[in-house]
Amino acid sequence: MPYKKTLQVILVLAIAGVLFSGYLSYYELFSPEGCTDAIVSCGDKGFTIADLPACVYGFVMYLAILILTAWSIIKNKS
């Protein structure tokens, strides 16, 4: 698979990951009932890493992948 096509596939997967983990993070952090109101259950609300739910770390990692991939696509456009 060509380099540019690979980056585009990674970008699409990163966008999907940011949307999904952002959705779960929003419900976990800002909804009074937690993920019980969400369409998808995000697990036990009691499980945290450094007082943050695991989905927040997924959001940060997917966001980093999204930014790096988009930057790489833009940089190699010329």
Notes on the protein architecture:
This is Vitamin K epoxide reductase domain-containing protein. InterPro entries: VKOR_sf. This protein is mainly α. It has one domain (20-75). 64% of the residues lie in helices and 0% in strands. It contains 2 helices and no strands. It has helices at residues 3-30, 54-75. α1 (3-30) runs antiparallel to α2 (54-75). The longest helix is centred in the N-terminal third of the chain and has 28 residues, at 3-30. It is elongated and about 45 Å long. The two termini are 20 Å apart.
Give me the secondary-structure topology.
Layout: H1 3-30, H2 54-75
Helix pairs in contact: 1-2
So how many helices?
2
The biggest sheet amounts to: none
Q: In percent, how helical is the residue content? A: 55-70%
The stretches of 5 or more residues where confidence is low (pLDDT under 50) are none
Question: What structural class should be given to the helix and strand makeup?
Answer: mainly alpha
The helix/strand order is: HH
Q: Could you tell me the strand content as a percent range?
A: under 5%
Give the tally of structural domains.
Answer: 1
Instruction: Assign an overall shape.
Output: elongated
Mean pLDDT over the residues: 84
